[in-house]
Amino acid sequence: MLNPADLLTSFDPETGVIDGALRSERCLSDLRGIFHDADAYAAALADGDPLVYYTYAVEPADGPGDLYYAIGTILPGRIGDEYYMTKGHLHTWRPAAEFYIGLRGSGLMLLEDEATGESHLVPLEPNGAVYVPGSTAHRTINTGDEPLTYLGIYPARAGHDYAAIAERGFSTIVTCVDGRPVARRV
Fold it and tell me: Which residue range forms the structural domain that includes residue 53?
């Protein structure tokens, strides 16, 4: 039976805070191995352990057709020439697709086909939506000078497979060159 109180949540598109949802945080020390420049990472970590991004997730039901959503906020910053970014993941249930909707800031979605390794960069801007197909690794990158806040909507059974990305990484990195994001194969 539906409970009307479970059907509505409120969120702040500027801060990414969802009323009543638990906050998950990733600090620089949680992102070991995702930045290509290991020396720049070590030097930045020696200066402290800053917060890089946080998320709030809403998981109202977990039936076969149910959806979850989360709001993520990536703070501005760089490690060496690489922008702050999420760990990136595949879905445990590989067919699961996802929508990302930009709320604030400017950034990119790095999408990589699991089977072919083909990568694409797609802008993530306010009022824009990015479709992430199933079997596609995805990472969100803040390329701006303010927090990047976005909404992600995905099937309840999708799950998050971070281990596959930790093992093989992405084949493309995004660095700042002359003040602009540039993709480079590694």
Answer: 4-185
Nearby residues of 168 by Cβ (< 8 Å), 6 or more positions away: none
> Tens place of pLDDT for every residue, the chain, 186 residues?
567 777 789 999 999 999 989 999 999 999 999 999 999 999 999 999 999 999 999 998 888 899 999 999 999 999 999 999 999 999 999 999 999 999 999 999 999 999 999 999 999 999 999 999 999 999 999 999 999 999 999 999 999 999 999 999 999 999 999 999 999 999
Could you tell me which residues are beta bridge partners of residue 23? 56
Q: What is the CATH number of the domain that holds 36?
A: 2.60.120.10
Number of domains in the chain: 1
Predicted TM-score (pTM) of this structure: 0.95
The continuous run of DSSP H or E covering 70 comes out as strand 67-74
State the residue for tokens 């072919």.
116
Tokens encoding 178? 């002359």
d(CA 98, CA 17): 20
